[in-house]
Amino acid sequence: MAKGSESALPTALERRAPRVSYRHESLADVLAETGTLAAFGFGAGAPSHDDPRYLGVPLEGLDAPTPLEVWQVDGPVATGREGDVRWAEGQGWLFAAIELDEGTHGGPRDTAEHAYRQLREFLGARAPRHVQRIWNYLGAINEGEGDSERYKLFCEGRAAGMGQFFSDGFPAATAIGHHGGTDRLQVYLLACDAPGARVENPRQVSAWRYPRQYGRTPPSFARGMALPGQDALAISGTAAVVGHSSAHEDDLDAQLGETLANLETLLAHAGMPAGFDTHSPLKAYVRHAIDAPRVIDFLASRLPGVPVLLLHGDVCRRELLVEIDGWRYA
Ligand code: 3EB
Q: Phi and psi dihedrals of 3, rounded to 5?
């Protein structure tokens, strides 16, 4: 091959997507494995550990015993801390997480701005700065009325903290309310040294174009992100939103059906084969714990064999009872 050919450079195709799985093993064992980029425990019973790769998420599992979620890459991982950001990096992939206390940062708007500004400043100096996917977990997400609802204030602060960092387009994301203390904001992300490809859903208005009724600042996320190696689709939080409207108020089964229709349309639009499989894990966030058995039954019949982690969380629109996010490997 000719000298100077780009074949000597790492190409996006070499960036095999991190493997995401749910595992019933000890945190120490999972962290000891080469290639563990991140590990997550859920709920009050989650382990604690000061490894920067570990995050305890304040969402309770509804389908005990609750596993760990584990992200793994194909080689060794370096870790560190910078300000409030903890991170892990390996094979071109980066995990970064921040947890801030609203008590010291002044409410949901300013805390989100602060979190996103710190993440942006941290990422700007690193090779893996192409954010593919972000999760946001905040307390009391539906508290407050109209434009003062905490989720809407979060959206304003998020956009302010992002600045121009995502002027090419937003990453895929999830924003869910937890019950682990109103003041606690967690934001974590997966980034890569190569850009992914954003995917929108033709059944849904793009979130950043939502009309004024949903708040002064529309939500900053893409419906999905095809990772740089084109070997996985990161699927944003998906609910029974059709156009920009919430469908099937107070009807759990109908919302679940609409959510699956949205997920299937997103897969098709991303050029992925239809359906989910046993290696592509999903999370289902359920507003009312009492609905958990019905969600389990519905998903077991419609998505048999698909790993689903059921979590007790509030969707950002009050009328929505359930939201699903996750991964689809090619
Ligand atoms: C929706 O379709 C549901 O604010 O980051 C889904 C995924 C939702 C991400 C976010 C919000 C977010 O609008 C809500």
A: -60, 140
* Cβ 136 vs Cβ 97: under 8 Å: no
Q: What is the DSSP string of 171-227?
A: PEEEEEEESS-TTEEEEEEEEESS--EEE--TTB--GGG--GGG-SS----BSEEE-
Backbone angles phi, psi at 227, to 5 degrees: -65, 160
- What is the spatial distance between Cα 326 and Cα 40, in angstroms, rounded to a whole number? 14
Q: What is the pLDDT of residues 100-119, one digit of tens each?
A: 999 999 999 999 999 999 99
Q: What is the CA radius of gyration of the chain?
A: 19
Helix (H, G, I), strand (E, B) or coil at 100: strand
The fold of the 19-329 domain, in CATH, is 60s Ribosomal Protein L30; Chain: A; (3.30.1330)
Which of 236, 244, 287 is the pocket-test mutation for ligand 1 (most atoms within 8 Å of CB)? 236
Give 199-237 pLDDT, tens digit per residue.
999 999 999 999 999 999 999 999 999 999 999 999 999
| Short-list 51, 39, 172, 178, CA closest to 102 | 178
225 CB-near residues (< 8 Å, 6+ apart) = 132, 133, 171, 172, 196, 197, 198, 199, 233, 234, 236
pLDDT at 5 exceeding the cut of 70: no
**What does each C-alpha distance from 193 to 17, 123, 129, 130, 325 come to in angstroms?**
12, 11, 6, 6, 23
Q: What is the mean pLDDT of residues 115-138?
A: 97
Mutational pocket test of ligand 1: of 198, 248, 314, 316, the residue with most ligand atoms within 8 Å of the beta carbon: 316
At 254 the three-state DSSP class reads: helix
> What's the token pair of residue 171?
């990453």
